[in-house]
């Protein structure tokens, strides 16, 4: 598997080479289509100006004149009718000017060797140091016919400016390659960090924060990853705490049962035996209730039993729940006031019944003898609102935010006496939220609590 970095490196090099090749081909085509003929024409003008100068100024020394032009950057070949040949400037690397072409020029024809130089593929013709790669024309000097062939000397074609430009292009190419490699490294660095972080999360290590401080897409990815890790960490903490709580809540009644069973074994007096048996019974019921609540929570979590929606009369369901708690209310001499509008709702009656039962049993549990409870059920803008208001011991303001957490008990000592598991309100919230609603709790001034549930009419 190639690393992202090497892929980037290869990709960059391929792009650079391909663009260089495309640029070369484009320049080459331009040379063949346009430059070659233009170059020929330009040099033809020069050679023509030379010969017209020689012909117009009779007393001129031909050799001297041609040598001066050669010094100025040209290669020249002068051939007279007797085929006597003189070369000026640095000699041609290849002397391949054909006698036929020389003859033609001596007869007065112009020679366009630059234009017709046979270099189909590359623009090397531009640089070919061959005597065939020239332009030629004829002139008369001292009554004799001459053919003059010319091309610029490559040495003079490359000036300091050309070297400067070439240096600039090479420096630019090297610098941009280095910059791209540096950028790629910087770009890949956080991805490497992210990969290491995912490995740590895989090993259930949620604590190390990601050190990526960027605002771009990778920064956003790192931020989302960090958020996800924090949530996973929090879930992990909750899961461990949950297991711890469950074990603890099972352990206490089991120890009690074991202790009292031991006592019974020692054959205590009948009255005591009866009391011990009652404790064992109560503890067994507590365990059974706890197991049922846990099973309910698990099924809500996993949605193994998704909502079985039905349209039913909510006020009637509430009345039925209250009826089942009538004996508890009477036992604590509590008064109950009801204000229930006739409301039909689409929801899961089995789950919603748990909501009312938990809220009512809490109101009874946490209210002293002789207190009162008020339950209302109304409908506003397609939302059903149920309130449970009691005159009980209430919950301190700073703890209200936590009462919907699993196993959270406001005051361990007071709930232990009453026998709460801390799961009731967690179940209530989950069921309400599954119905798309929400639940809030607030203190009633000096005394008691009010729980407000709103459920949208689906
Ligand atoms: P529990 O089974 O312990 O009652 P819940 O989840 O139903 O668990 O309630 C969480 C905590 O909130 C309880 O331990 C109790 O201290 C507090 N609480 C719930 N309802 C009331 C209420 N009506 N009045 C006062 N405190 C309440």
Automatic annotation (TrEMBL):
The keyword Isomerase does not apply. Keywords: ATP-binding, Cell membrane, Kinase, Membrane, Nucleotide-binding, Phosphoprotein, Transferase, Transmembrane, Transmembrane helix, Two-component regulatory system, Virulence. It is found in: Cell membrane. The chain crosses the membrane at residues 6-27, 161-184. Signal peptide: none annotated. Pfam families: HAMP, HATPase_c, HisKA. The keyword Cell inner membrane does not apply. It is an enzyme of class 2 (transferase). It is a multi-pass membrane protein. PROSITE patterns: HAMP (PS50885), HIS_KIN (PS50109). Residues 245-458 form the Histidine kinase domain. It catalyses: ATP + protein L-histidine = ADP + protein N-phospho-L-histidine. Residues 185-237 form the HAMP domain. Its EC number is 2.7.13.3. One of its GO terms (molecular function) is kinase activity. Gene3D superfamilies: 1.10.287.130, 6.10.340.10, Histidine kinase-like ATPase, C-terminal domain. Its main location: membrane. PANTHER family: HISTIDINE KINASE, SENSOR HISTIDINE KINASE CPXA. Member of the two-component regulatory system HssS/HssR involved in intracellular heme homeostasis and tempering of staphylococcal virulence. HssS functions as a heme sensor histidine kinase which is autophosphorylated at a histidine residue and transfers its phosphate group to an aspartate residue of HssR. HssR/HssS activates the expression of hrtAB, an efflux pump, in response to extracellular heme, hemin, hemoglobin or blood. This is Heme sensor protein HssS. It comes from Siminovitchia thermophila.
């Amino acid at each position: 598997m190639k690393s992202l970095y090497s892929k980037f490196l290869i990709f960059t090099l391929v792009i650079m080479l391909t663009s260089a090749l495309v640029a070369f081909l484009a320049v080459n085509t331009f040379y063949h289509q346009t430059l070659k003929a233009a170059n020929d024409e330009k040099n033809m003008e020069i050679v023509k100006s030379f010969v017209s100068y020689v012909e117009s100024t009779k007393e001129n020394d031909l050799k001297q004149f041609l040598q001066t032009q050669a010094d100025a950057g040209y290669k020249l070949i002068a051939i007279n009718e007797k085929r006597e040949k003189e070369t000026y400037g640095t000699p041609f690397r290849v002397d391949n000017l054909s006698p036929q072409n020389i003859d033609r020029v001596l007869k007065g024809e112009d020679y366009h060797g630059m234009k017709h130089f046979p270099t189909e593929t590359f623009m090397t013709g531009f640089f070919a140091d061959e005597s065939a790669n020239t332009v030629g024309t004829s002139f008369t000097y001292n009554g004799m016919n001459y053919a003059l062939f010319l091309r610029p000397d490559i040495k003079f074609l490359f000036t300091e400016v050309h070297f400067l430009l070439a240096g600039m292009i090479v420096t630019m190419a090297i610098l941009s390659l280095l910059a791209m490699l540096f950028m790629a490294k910087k770009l890949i660095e956080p991805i490497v960090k992210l990969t290491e972080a995912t490995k740590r999360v895989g090993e259930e290590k949620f604590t190390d924060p990601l050190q990526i401080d960027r605002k771009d897409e990778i920064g956003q990815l790192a931020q989302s990853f960090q958020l996800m890790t924090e949530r996973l960490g929090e879930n992990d903490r909750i899961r461990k705490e949950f297991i711890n709580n469950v074990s603890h809540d099972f352990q206490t009644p089991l120890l009690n049962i074991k202790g009292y069973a031991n006592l019974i074994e020692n054959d205590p007096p009948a009255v005591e035996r009866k009391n011990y048996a009652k404790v064992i019974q109560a503890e067994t019921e507590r365990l059974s209730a706890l197991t049922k609540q846990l099973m309910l929570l698990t099924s809500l979590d996993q949605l193994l039993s998704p909502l079985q929606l039905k349209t039913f009369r909510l006020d009637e369901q509430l009345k039925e729940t209250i009826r089942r708690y009538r004996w508890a209310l009477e036992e604590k001499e509590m008064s109950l006031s009801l204000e229930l509008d006739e409301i039909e709702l689409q929801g899961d009656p089995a789950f919603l019944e748990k909501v009312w039962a938990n809220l009512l049993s809490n109101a009874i549990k946490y209210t002293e003898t002789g207190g009162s409870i008020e339950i209302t059920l109304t409908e506003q803008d397609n939302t059903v609102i149920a309130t449970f208001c009691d005159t009980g011991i209430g919950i301190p303001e700073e703890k209200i935010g936590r009462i919907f957490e699993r196993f959270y008990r406001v005051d361990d000592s007071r709930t232990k006496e009453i026998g709460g598991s801390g799961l009731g309100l967690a179940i209530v919230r989950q069921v309400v939220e599954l119905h798309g609603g929400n639940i809030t709790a607030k203190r009633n001034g000096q005394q008691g609590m009010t729980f407000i549930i709103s459920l949208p009419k689906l």
